Every structure is written in C-alpha cells, then in structure tokens.
Amino acid sequence: MERVALLRTSGRRLLHRCRRGRPVVPAAAASSLARRPLPSSFPSRGYSALPGGGARFLAAAAPLHCSGRYWPAATPRLARRLTAPAVSTSPSPAAYDTDYVHEYAAKLGFEKVSEQTIEECKSTAVLYKHKKTGAEVMSVSNDDENKVFGIVFRTPPKNSTGIPHILEHSVLCGSRKYPLKEPFVELLKGSLHTFLNAFTYPDRTCYPVASTNTKDFYNLVDVYLDAVFFPNCVEDFQTFQQEGWHYELDNPEEEITFKGVVFNEMKGVYSQPDNIMGRVSQQALSPENTYGVDSGGDPHEIPKLTFEEFKEFHRKFYHPSNARIWFYGDDDPKERLRVLSDYLDQFEASPAPNESKVLPQRLFKEPVRVIEKYPAGQEGDLTKKYMVCMNWLLSEEPLDVETELTLGFLDHLLLGTPASPLRRILLESGLGDAIVGGGVEDELLQPQFSIGLKGVSEENLQKVEELVMETLKNLAEEGFASEAVEASMNTIEFALRENNTGSFPRGLSLMLRSIAKWIYDMDPFEPLKYEQPLQQLKACIAEEGSKAVFSPLIEKYILKNMHRVTVEMQPDPEKASRDEAAEKEMLKQVKASMTQSDLAELARATKELKEKQETPDPPEALKAVPSLSLQDIPKKPIHIPIEIGEINGVKVLQHDLFTNDVVYSEVVFDMGSMKKEHLQLLPLFCQSLLEMGTKDMDFVQLNQLIGRKTGGISVYPFTSSVMGKEDPLTRIIVRGKAMAPRVEDLFNLMYTILQDVQFTEQQRFKQFVSQSKARMENRLRGSGHGIAASRMDAKLNAAGWIAEQMGGISYLEYLRDLETKIDQDWDSISSSLEEMRKTLFSKNCCLINLTSDWKNLEKSSQHIAKFLDSLPSSPSLGSDPWLSRLPSVNEAIVVPTQVNYVGKAGNIYQSGYQLNGSAYVISKHISNTWLWDRVRVSGGAYGGFCDFDTHSGVFSYLSYRDPNLLKTLEVYDETAKFLRELEMDDDALTKAIIGTIGDVDAYQLPDAKGYSSLLRYLLGITEEERQQRREEILSTSLKDFKEFADAVESIKDNGVVVAVASPDDVEAANKEKLVFPEVKKCL
Ligand SMILES: [Zn+2]
Known about the structure:
- The protein is α+β, with helices and mostly antiparallel strands.
- The protein folds into four domains: 98-357 and 576-614, Cytochrome Bc1 Complex, Chain A, domain 1 (2-Layer Sandwich), CATH 3.30.830.10; 368-505 and 514-572, CATH 3.30.830.10; 643-765 and 825-870, Cytochrome Bc1 Complex, Chain A, domain 1 (2-Layer Sandwich), CATH 3.30.830.10; 891-1081, CATH 3.30.830.10.
- Strands 1, 2, 3, 4, 5, 6, 7, 8 and 11 form a nine-stranded mixed β-sheet that branches.
- A hairpin with a 3-residue loop joins strand 7 (199-200) and strand 8 (204-211).
- The radius of gyration is 28 Å and the shape is globular.
- The site of zinc ion has 6 residues, from helix 4 and helix 8.
C-alpha cells in the first residue's frame, strides 16, 4: 500500500536516536566512517534509514558524540529521507527450491499465505501464518549478506506512564534461557552484529538485529526471541524499578529522589522544545485514540505506573498472536522457521490482536489551537523565541497507493530542498529562524502534514500562519515549475536506485517500511514494490501536467481540511526550575508521609538494588549467551581496493567497487592556505556555495539543476589530529554522486559551485546564520554530550580547537555576533567569502577520490582532467600551522534542562602511553561494563561511555541525560581502579575481542568503503598498520587492561572537565567543591 514510504519523512516527532557513531578514524577500524552523524535539528530531518513516526531507541549504548567536528548540513534533504528498498549490490538474486521449503514449513505448522517476487529488491518474499497462534512471518530471501531479523508487537498504550517504552528496555534484562542481568549488553560486547537495538513507536515496539555472520545472526535471534517471550522482568520488580522508576534514598536523613533509566531519558526529551512541539502536535491531532498519549512516558506520569499494570501489558501484548516477524537475507529460509516454531509452539492463540487494534481518529469539523509553554533559558530576547506549527491529519481512511505516492512527491516538492517553495518562502520571510514540522508523516495509521517556524516574535505568529496558508494556496493555483518537478523526480529515482541506507542495514529499512502497513493488517508486500506506481505517476504527470496532479491534493488534504491543529509554543524561563521545584515538593510529601520504618526500609531497598546492579553476573550465567570463538574471526582486515594515480599533476585515488552504476566522488582541498581569521566563516562559506546563485542562475535554478543531474552535492570542512604530529589535518571536502552517464554534469556542477557562485545575497546569508544558530541551540539541549566533547577536545588539541570554532560553543557565540555584523558590514563579509574561495580552491592543493566499478572509473578520467584544467593554480602561500587551544580549565555550560551531560578527558599519549590495538578492546569494555553499570544502571543516566581518539590520544568519558554530576565524575575517576582490580576469564575476554572486531569490520556500503579508504590515506594509516592493530586486538590479554590503568589514571589527575548541565546542579556541585571555575550561560 505504502508508496509514500519511499518518500517517508523520518526523524520527526518524538524520535531521538541514540546512535553509536563517532567520526574518528581508528587505524584499525573502518567502521566509524560509515556512520555519518545525524543532524539533530529539524530542517535536516534525519536520515531516512532510521525509523520515524516517533520511534525511540533502547540504547545509547556507546559513543554518541561527534567529537565536535563539523559535518555537512547542506546535503540535499531527500537523499537523507528516502528509504529505498534493497537493491542488491551484487547482480543476481538468490535461488532456492521453494516447494521444498513450503513442505518443510507445513510440517512445522506454518501455512503459506502468499509468495511474491519483489523485483525492486531482487528478493523472493513469502508470508506465512503460524497456524496455532496466528503469528505472521515474512521470510525475504535474496543474496544480501547483511541478514536482518525483527519481531514487532502492536503495543498501543492507554496512558502516558510509558509502559511500552519501559517494557522495551526491561525485556532485554534477562530471560528464561539467558538468566543474566543484561543479555543485551553481552551481545553489544561480544557479537558481530551490524545492528542491535530496540525501538518504541507510539503504537508498536520493534526488536531488530542484524549480522553478516550466520552463526552470530542466529545467536542474536535466539536471545531476542527468548527475551520478548520469556523475560525475567515480569517477575522481577527490581528491573522495573531500574528501567522504569523508583524512589531512591541512600540514608533516611537525605532527600528522596526519583531514579530510572526511562524516567531520565524522558526528562531529557521533555527538555527539548522541538520534541515538545512534536509531542503536543501529535497528541492534539489525535485526542481520541492511542496517539493522544505518549508511549515514551511523560516524566510526570511515569511514577504512576505500577508493576501490576506493567506485567499485565506484557502478558497481553507480547504474544505470538500479536506479533509480526521478519527475516531477510541470504540465510536458509528453513532454519528461520525451525527456530521460530520452537518458540511459537509454546503458546496458544490469544485475543490480543483485537485488543491491540489501533482505531482511527475521526476528523474534526473545526480547527483547533493549542498553546504550550516550553523551558527556555534567560539569555537573549525571549519575545523572539516563540514557535508555531500547523498540523493536519490528512484522512480518516487509509489512502490508496497512488495518492500516498503522490503525497510523498508533493512533500518533496514543497519542502525537500532549500529551493523548495514552501521552505524557501518561510525562511526568506524573515519571520523565524528555522523550520519546524516534518512535512508529510506517514508511518502511523493516518498520514499527517506539519509545517511551522521557530525563533518567531510573538507579534509575528499570526503572520507565519497566514504565510503558510497563502503559499499553499498560491501553489495550488499556480502549480510547480517544471524544472522543480523534474528535479524531484530525478532525486527520488536516484535515491531509489542507489538505495543507500548508510550504516543502517538495507533489510531493516525494508522491514520498517513493510511494517508501517502490515501492523495495521494491510498488505506487507505492497510497500516493497514501487516501480509500477512510480511509472504511473510519471505518465500521469507527463499527460495531464503536474498541476492537475498536485493541486487537487493541496486543496483537499490541506486547504479545505478542517482537521487542523495549530500549536503555539511560548518560551518560559521559569518552567525548568518550576518543574524541578514541583518534583522536589512532591518527593518531600512522599517522604513526609512515610514513617521511620518506611524510610529505613526504602534505604535498605535502595542499597539492595544498588548491590544487585553492581554485582557482576556469575560466569555460568554469562556462558549462557552464545558467542563466536576467535576461530570464526578473519585474521585480515577488510580489504578496500585502492589505486593511486595522477591526472594533470593531481593525485587521484580510485576504488574499484560495484556501485550499481553510481559514481561517488570527493574533491579534497587543503584548508591550510586559508587566513586564520576566516576559520569561523568556513561552515557558512560552504553553505553559501550550495545555496547562493551564480551570474546566470539564481539559487533555486542551481539547486534544481543539481537535483536534475546528480544524486546530490555537499561541501564541508574535515579536521582531525594526525598521530605523532602537532599539525592537524584540515581539509574541505566536496562530495558528490551521479549515475555514470552524468559524471560530466557532476564535475561541471562542482566547478560552478566552486568558481561561479556569487557571494552577494546578504539576506540569504543572514538566514544561514539564523538557521545555524537555531541548530546549535538545539544541539546544546539535545546533544549536550557532543558539545561537551567538542569543548574538551578544544582544550586538548589543535584539531579539536578548529572543530570547536566551527561547531561548538565558540561557534554559537560567533554566530550571535555575526548576526548583527551582517547588517553593519556586509561588504567585508562578502569580500572575505570571495577571498576564501581564491585561497582555498586551487589545483595545487587538491586531491580526488573516486568510487565505482573500473569501467566507470576509466570513463570518468576525461571529465576529471577537464575539471582540473579549469581550476586555477595559485602559488601555495604557505602559512602558520594551526596550534591554538582553549584554556585548559574546567567549565560548566549552563542550560535550561533537567538532566546533565558530564564529560572528562585527557591526552593519554602525554602520559607516555603508546598506541596498541588492545586499547580498542579496553575502551569498549570500559563503556560496556564499568560505565554502563555505574552511570546508566545504578546512576540512572540514559547513557555513559568513553571514547578514545587514537589520532590525538584524547581519551574522554561522557554521560548522556544524566541526573548526576559529581557522582558521575567520581565514577570516571575510579576507572583505573576498576581496571586494576578487573578479573576476566577467557570467555569474557574473547567476547570483548570479538565485539571489537565487530566494530572494526562494521558493514559498509561501497560509497562508505571508498570514503574510509580516502580518510585513511589522508591520515597516513597504512595497510601494515591496520594489520598490526588487528593482531594486537586479537591477542589482547588481561595484562593489557592492567597496563592501560596507568594511562587512564593520568586523566583522573590531569584531565579537564566540561559539563552541560542545569544551573541548580552546577551551583550545588560548586558549593560542595569548586569543580567549575568557569560557568558559562549559553541559552
Ligand atoms: Zn529508551
């Protein structure tokens, strides 16, 4: 049914992703490069590959931060939004004897419902029904080695106590067959998974895993199946307390506090204005059904949840009759059914499917307006910090295929690129700083459309609403430019063909699309097939013109649709402290109502819970979790072909990889020749290259041309330390992709961007500044750990300093000044931009990287030669190296939040530590055991982890949505002690090694492989060094752990601390001991 899934917007609403990416380049690991960090701000709505519709991830399991490096924010949006179905990267579909499989299935009690060949993903898909329980299974077979399993339950909540979310966390805390504290963590530590997490949507809960290793894959599947059907949490009150909520009291004299992983995770979510906006909009759009409450949990409501309700919810909904199960990849389809039947056969049919049905919201007769307050800081002019968003529920009934597809296109036409009219007109109006609302959202039962602005003055709220309506009305009357329609069409087709899901498994992205219909009892195959309706839509546009296609949709679904909810959000500088005070007051009353013996009992229970949390699992229990052995691990690192040649005197790296006829290219320039004073302008310079016009074209035309001819172009700075060198690596990377016949166009467009774009559009530039500022402010609340990491890095090394200047607090301060400067001194800014172009883009300091198959690579050379010839060659100016640092002082960055982000870091090379591959194993182990147990499990934070940047030597600790501050620092400081006292048997050590290899060998699509190889080349990491690190990883011993203790000990004494935290917590910490000589207010 679901074509619009192709164009699915994702990452809107209550979604917050806890990814594991870190853009550093470990010598041994290629992995992190594939994980492009996700922009956290709204206009760049996340990557398609991730679930949208308000899904929430289980684990901030490992590093979440981006080391403060600046990353592209200006890549064409659609490329990030599309989830294309899997087109196998190798040319032939898998074949197997289907009759034989069906016979086998019947024997196991599965009935074949339907079998279809899906050309779009070169797969055979069979839908089975388990006769006894009614469980449905999609078994998708093809030759993709990145196998995916997922089990999904329909879990619509009736209130906002967060049951589905807490259950999602809890079922992975031990089960019948795997009776240990957290099998999930054991899998994180010791498997080769390419994906492992769980997410809660407003109406369903998903448990997906992926691996390229078959044995590993089935290990993961078994642990997950046992976890969802037979979890220990339904008998264990303490797990409910730990993951959900509980009162904590260390001794009867102290105050009672709330603790719980989900409780604190949600406090973080409720501190972010964009999240509040998404939640309020969704709830107001659907007041009558399950979407009127928050499946994630409202921190005010979570403490109302009882253990009885929690158990009952599991009993009712985590049942095969209410399950949809997905298998995908090149494994044996018989084995899938065999494993499943073992579990499913243990159940009888249940009435759950009736009880879990999601009912539609009836459409309103009249629009609704909602006003909500959000916690704002004291900084800046509050009257300019309003937000407004208009939302429509599009239909009461499910839409037909064609309509959904067309709506998806319409969404791209309206909002998909900076040149798209609705987006452009809203931003150019100057009425607000940045876009909110994600356009068309279609992952829930009824599709919706949302759009608005933030950073709006109170008196302009009305004007924003009028402008939205007027723009849509004009577009309905006048239609879209044919160039715009062509550009959208090409962009969408390109993305479908390329099917680039980044580091997200293709089979998982496919599963999420299928589930979005299947979960409502609709056809699970339809969302996988896009070719025919796409061709129909194209033909329809060709015959009737685009206006005839799109105008009626705008009319019907938006302009004349009375089911409209306008949400206005008002900044409230008191809200954060009021909420905090209310919580304290409530806890005080709880305490007052308790007798002395109640209090003693609570203190005892608190102690018992902590002891349980801090006691390691017995080795026998750990052995229950299946693991690979070192024999299963390849001895050599993953090989990426590279040929280093020259064209017209310029170095060209080529990677011969099968890419389905897409050519990926990076043109790399040295930043060193740039004047130092221009550094902070650089991100805006990059954005200007892509979003300003030339002499002959305005920026809309230029953007459309890029959309029509290529798969997208982005420009961004890249910085990193280089091991053993003072001087950091500083580059500008121009990244682009195109189908092979259009490589010439790609390089022509790159030339246009680099040489012809005019830096004359003052108003546009001003918009870039407001958008960047809004994005930075959003990061400060939602990804404070990234801000803290970047700040620490800036205090410890030059690359970190540069990155912080372009993406940290320093950058935010710069943007605030720049905003006024644009009006006063635009000419000097404009001429600086021009000067930057002259110094940066010269043939002399250029390098080209290409990834495609050899025949495309060969054909591309002539276009590259022409491109290089046209670049100016200016004499290298030579310049001073970048060696600045921020003062090495502990610092607190105060923001209006209820949870903190606490960091501490130091350079361990300076303490004499010399890099050994074992460091990867050890730092992963510290994250997954010591920090996970102390910062998350007993500390109650959503995440705690460490990160070792092997290029600079900076080792950092970070916590995420953390109720503590000083306590967390104490945990960091005890890490050396933890290592010295560590006992580890061979099994545990082997697991740690295998888990590390899993990171190092992370699955990469061809473009990511070519890019990793480029970065290794730039950083001087050789194949010999990779081999050596791998051998060191494989031979890691307990002795290495003990030796590493000395290195981390130096951080305890000489490290630097940065926390992004609430004012109260910082004040309290400083009262206890002066941790933060510097306190900075940023919001
Ligand atoms: Zn969660």
